[in-house]
């Protein structure tokens, strides 16, 4: 297996992008990544893209070909990857494998989702497809409801409180306020979260990531040629993915995602690092409780201590470990297929030292954690500045 | 979302009567029925099993923002139930006082209307659960 590096990254502003559709969003992010990598386009050999539900959200399928078309990259082979909310992370991994294998030297990987062309109710149904349609959705489960079931167990087993969950949202809005691409750049307080509209008890609207339009893209190259294009290639030193039951209720435990633990363990092993070596991580905070699970499953905090650690500020920018410097899914926004790729773009900028006011001091190793559904897919990448 | 008629028809044994299966090799019970026992794989032997519908609440939530089609039901309680035979199942808790809906509460299955496909479409039925004192 060859070593693989990220040589370019780009994203669109995340938010309610009524002015743009899927082709415009992916082209904007893709062109930014290509410009960032100093490529004219001829060097690219394949396109990978993550999109969860374009068919339900805008009626468009055949997204693979659409991506290459919109980015002006025909006739390159182009593959659309779907793994629910982990579509972007899994697309990144497929692109990584294609370069690591020696099949290609340079590929571009994008992620995109256009979610605001339909009503919230219809978007809720589309997202429910990330869970088990026959045995969860049929009984009236929504995604907030599934994560609320997780939250209730975590609160019961470990004493996690609603205030601790709220602290996740407060911290991520604080980080998002320094990110020009974030959907929400306003700061919020714990009281505002606690008093916001109930969605699925104990989760309130400010515990939930929003419905978002947006796209992100990164360019991958074999590490031996990466320096030709950039002075600061970011090497992917670990890449792992795992699966679990589609339905939440089929799992032995609700308070930890086994797929995330397995993916993390394998990524750490490949990268030859431990959780202590990670300076910053972009984790999948689709709901506040999901970030608590993530920082426990990744080994940053002991099981059951993720909530209190967050409330005590241990995950804030430049604290013990900086979690979700982009603002995470909560504040940066969650265009589902784009999220996994956006996480990689954020880590790239951080490891290059280009993150401005949200820069993590002396960042050398970063991690991305992208979850599909309620944990049926997990994909973890570990990245290191190559110089 | 409108579910096709064959899809509803083929799940009648499961949704109306809680039919699942059990692996005779490892004695693990499954709902809905599995084609392959994930523990025993090729050594597994799955046979039909009807569940009693008795169990207890493992986790619960109250849903205030329902998907399209369930607006009239909201807010409703949704729970993961641990059936007395072992498997866990997701279902609504109905006809139960808010105060009684808690982890560990004993429930039994009730047969109820789930939703309808518009004014002239199919009516879907299935299982919900109710707290028993």
Describe the structure.
- The complex is a heterodimer of chains A (about 375) and B (about 130).
- Chain A is α/β, with parallel strands linked by helices and about 375 residues long.
- Chain A folds into two domains: about 5-120 and about 210-235, Peroxisomal Thiolase, Chain A, domain 1, CATH 3.40.47.10; about 130-210 and about 235-385, Thiolase/Chalcone synthase (Peroxisomal Thiolase, Chain A, domain 1, 3-Layer(aba) Sandwich).
- In chain A, about 35% of the residues lie in helices and about 20% in strands.
- Chain A has 14 helices and twelve strands.
- The radius of gyration of chain A is 19 Å and the shape is globular.
- The model of chain A has no long low-confidence stretch (mean pLDDT about 95).
- Chain B has about 130 residues and is mostly beta strands.
- Chain B has a domain at about 55-135: Beta Barrel (OB fold (Dihydrolipoamide Acetyltransferase, E2P)), CATH 2.40.50.
- Chain B contains two helices and eight strands.
- In chain B, strands 6-5-4-7-8 form a five-stranded antiparallel sheet. In chain B, strands 2-1-3 form a three-stranded antiparallel sheet.
- In chain B, a hairpin with a 6-residue loop joins strand 7 (about 105-115) and strand 8.
- The radius of gyration of chain B is 16 Å and the shape is globular.
- The mean pLDDT of chain B is about 95.
- The chains are: A alpha/beta (about 375), B mainly beta (about 130).
- At the A-B interface, helix 5, helix 6 and strand 5 of A face strand 4, strand 5, strand 6 and strand 8 of B.
Number of helices of chain A: 14
Q: Return the string of H and E elements of chain B.
A: HHEEEEEEEE
For the record, the CATH class of the largest domain in chain A is Alpha Beta
Return the CATH architecture of the largest domain in chain A.
3-Layer(aba) Sandwich
Low-pLDDT ranges of chain B = none
Structural class of the helices, strands and pairings of chain A?
Answer: alpha/beta
- Please count the beta strands of chain A (DSSP E, at least 2 residues each): 12
Order of helices and strands of chain A: EHEHHEHEHHHHEEEHEHEHHEHHEE
Stretches of chain A where pLDDT is under 50 for at least 5 consecutive residues are none
Oligomerization category of the chains in this entry: heterodimer
């Amino acid at each position: 297996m060859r070593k693989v590096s990220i040589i370019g990254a780009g994203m669109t502003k995340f938010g309610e992008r009524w002015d743009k559709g899927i082709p415009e969003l992916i082209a904007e992010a893709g062109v930014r990544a290509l410009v960032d990598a100093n490529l004219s386009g001829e060097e690219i050999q394949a396109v990978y893209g993550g999109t969860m539900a374009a068919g339900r959200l805008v009626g468009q399928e055949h997204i693979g070909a659409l991506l290459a078309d919109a980015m002006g990259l025909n006739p390159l082979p182009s593959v659309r990857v779907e793994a629910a909310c982990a579509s972007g992370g899994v697309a990144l991994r497929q692109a990584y494998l294609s370069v690591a294998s020696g099949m290609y030297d340079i590929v571009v990987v994008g992620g995109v989702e256009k979610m605001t062309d339909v009503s919230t109710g219809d978007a809720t149904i589309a997202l429910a497809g990330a869970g088990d349609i026959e045995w969860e959705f049929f009984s009236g489960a929504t995604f907030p409801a599934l994560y609320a079931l997780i939250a209730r167990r975590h609160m019961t087993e470990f004493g996690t409180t609603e205030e601790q969950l709220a602290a996740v949202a407060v911290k991520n809005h604080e980080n998002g306020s320094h990110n020009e691409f974030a959907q929400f750049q306003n700061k919020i307080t714990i009281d505002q979260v606690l008093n916001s509209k109930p969605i699925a008890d104990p989760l309130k609207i400010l515990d939930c990531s929003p419905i978002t339009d947006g796209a992100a893209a990164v360019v991958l190259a074999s590490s031996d040629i990466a320096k030709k294009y950039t002075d600061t290639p970011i090497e992917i030193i670990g890449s792992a993915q795992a699966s679990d039951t589609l339905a939440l209720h089929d799992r032995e435990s609700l308070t930890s995602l086994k797929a995330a633990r397995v993916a993390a363990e394998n990524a750490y092993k490949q990268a030859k690092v431990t959780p202590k070596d990670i300076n910053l991580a972009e984790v999948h905070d689709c709901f506040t409780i999901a970030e608590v699970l993530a920082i426990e499953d990744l080994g940053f905090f002991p099981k059951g201590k993720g909530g209190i650690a967050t409330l005590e500020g241990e995950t804030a920018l430049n604290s013990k470990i900086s979690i979700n410097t982009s603002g995470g899914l909560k504040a940066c926004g969650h265009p589902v297929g784009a999220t996994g790729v956006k996480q990689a773009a954020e880590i790239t900028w951080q490891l290059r030292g280009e993150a401005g006011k949200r820069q993590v001091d002396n960042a050398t190793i970063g991690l991305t954690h992208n979850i599909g559904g309620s944990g049926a897919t997990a994909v973890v990448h570990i990245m290191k500045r190559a110089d | 979302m409108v579910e096709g008629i064959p899809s509803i028809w083929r799940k009648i044994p499961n949704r109306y009567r809680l039919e699942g299966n059990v692996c005779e090799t490892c004695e693990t019970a499954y709902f809905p029925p599995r084609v392959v026992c994930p523990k025993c794989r090729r050594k597994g032997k799955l046979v039909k099993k009807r569940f009693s519908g008795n169990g207890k609440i493992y986790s619960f939530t109250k849903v205030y923002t329902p998907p399209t089609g369930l607006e009239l039901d909201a807010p409703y309680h949704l729970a993961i139930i641990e059936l007395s035979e072992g498997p866990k199942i997701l279902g609504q808790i109905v006809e139960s006082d808010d105060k009684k809906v808690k982890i560990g509460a004993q429930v039994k299955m009730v047969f109820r209307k789930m939703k309808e496909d518009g004014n002239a479409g199919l009516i879907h039925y299935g299982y919900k659960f109710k707290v028993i004192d």
